[in-house]
Amino acid sequence: MDAEVTDAPERGRYEIRVDGGEVAGYAHYRTTTDGLVVFTHTEVDPSYKGRGVGGRLVRGALDDVRARGVRVLPVCPFVRKWIEGHPDYADLVDQVEESRVTD
């Protein structure tokens, strides 16, 4: 399965398109005034569940965030759990904001 993750800022989300352009899922975000990317919700079309689409989506979104040199706040439980399982992405999490949300 071919998959491509792109930022769709006009919709406030990263999208993953598979097999010729069909949107299989998305990760909603908002950007704060200081550039922090807050991931709020992730959704994958039920026909793609269990095929690794959600993980590819999060990885692609976080790779883009890293390339832009900004930090993230994973409010979305899926994004938070994915980062916990991939510690090489933990450096992207804004620890100050994270502690304010989880305390």
From TrEMBL:
Q: Name one Pfam family in it.
A: Acetyltransf_CG
Q: Which domain of life is it from?
A: Bacteria
- Return the CDD domains for the record: NAT_SF
- What Gene3D superfamilies does the entry give? 3.40.630.30
Domain N-acetyltransferase as annotated: residue spans:
1-103, 6-94
Under InterPro entries, the record lists: Acyl_CoA_acyltransferase, Gcn5-rel_NAT, GNAT_dom, GNAT_YJDJ
Recorded protein name is N-acetyltransferase
